[in-house]
């Protein structure tokens, strides 16, 4: 059972470069999320997609864009990476956004130099 | 801004003892509460969910919810060194037209052999 799969696991970027984090889930979940986790800051929601075809900003959306490609896939794009975006990124999914359990992918460690 | 507060720890308990982890939240109308465990370098994994006032037991874990006091706790009985991890409290809160899971910053638990 794959669950939530995200790639790449590790990435080093130079300031100003762009990249896309990919995420796919095989649990037939409707809602998908992107979080970032920084020391002392906890998990913070970047963007979420309550259902296929919809996306909404979370707590820290600046500098990011997302695409809900289909029900399974939800990508996160950094258009012009900045050192402040060095973080661990987690993709997650749930059956719906109505208080259901969220399941996380294994994380993507991103360093911007 | 809805908030979820946890003592960052570290909380250190001897093997076999009861570990008590606490969490308070600001949104009075929250209905769904979750405890996640996160090992260093890994993604959060769900331990317990609780929706009603009172206690909910699952093996060595007991979640306690008191909505009047806006307080949720996690008790770990017979603590084992393998329980050493960061425990994240998460509360589902509505903000505007959408709801989201808001995470506390986590309590680091250390179980000493």
Number of strands of chain A: 11
Specify the oligomeric state: heterodimer
Distance between the termini of chain B: 40 Å
Give the overall form of chain A. Answer: globular
Low-confidence runs of at least 5 consecutive residues of chain B: none
Quick one: biggest sheet of chain B?
6 strands, mixed
Cα radius of gyration of chain A in angstroms: 13 Å
What class, by secondary structure content of chain B?
mainly beta
Kindly describe this structure:
The complex is a heterodimer of chains A (113) and B (113). With 113 residues, chain A is mainly beta. Chain A contains no helices and eleven strands. In chain A, strands 2, 4, 5, 6, 9, 10 and 11 form a seven-stranded mixed beta sheet that branches. A four-stranded antiparallel beta sheet of chain A has the order 1-3-8-7, with no helix packed on it. Chain B is globular, with a radius of gyration of 14 Å. Chains A and B meet through β5 and β10 of A and β5, β9 and β10 of B.
Can you give keywords for this protein?
heterodimer; A: 113 residues; mainly beta; seven-stranded mixed beta sheet; 51% strand; B: 113 residues; five-stranded antiparallel beta sheet; globular
Q: Which SSEs are present, and which pair or pack?
A:
The complex is a heterodimer of chains A (113) and B (113).
Chain A: E1 4-7, E2 10-13, E3 19-25, E4 31-38, E5 42-49, E6 56-57, E7 64-68, E8 74-78, E9 87-94, E10 103-104, E11 108-112
Parallel strand pairs in A: 2-11
Antiparallel strand pairs in A: 1-3, 3-8, 4-5, 4-9, 5-6, 7-8, 9-10, 9-11
Chain B: E1 4-6, E2 11-14, E3 19-25, E4 32-38, E5 45-50, E6 54-58, E7 61-66, E8 71-76, E9 85-95, E10 98-103, E11 107-112
Parallel strand pairs in B: 2-11
Antiparallel strand pairs in B: 1-3, 3-8, 4-5, 4-9, 6-7, 7-8, 9-10, 9-11
């Amino acid at each position: 059972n794959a669950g939530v799969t995200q790639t790449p696991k590790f990435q080093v970027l130079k300031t100003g470069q762009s990249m896309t984090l990919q995420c796919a889930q095989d649990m037939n979940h409707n809602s998908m999320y992107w979080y970032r986790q920084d020391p002392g800051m906890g998990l913070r929601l970047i963007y979420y997609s309550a259902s296929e075809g919809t996306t909404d900003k979370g707590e820290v959306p600046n500098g990011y864009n997302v695409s809900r490609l289909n029900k399974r896939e939800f990508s996160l794009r950094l258009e012009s990476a900045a050192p402040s975006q060095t973080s661990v990124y987690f993709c997650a999914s749930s059956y719906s956004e109505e208080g259901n359990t969220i399941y996380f992918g294994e994380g993507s460690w991103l360093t911007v130099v | 801004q809805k908030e979820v507060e946890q003592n960052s720890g570290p909380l250190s308990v001897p093997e076999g003892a009861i570990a008590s982890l606490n969490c308070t939240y600001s949104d009075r109308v929250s209905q769904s509460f979750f405890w996640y465990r996160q090992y260093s370098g890994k993604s959060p994994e769900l331990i317990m969910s609780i929706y009603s006032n009172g206690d909910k037991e699952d093996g060595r874990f007991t979640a306690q919810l008191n909505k009047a006091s806006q307080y949720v706790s996690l008790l770990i009985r017979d603590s084992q060194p393998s329980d050493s991890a960061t425990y994240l409290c998460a509360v589902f809160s509505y903000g505007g037209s959408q709801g989201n899971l808001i995470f506390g910053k986590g309590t680091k638990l250390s179980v000493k052999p």
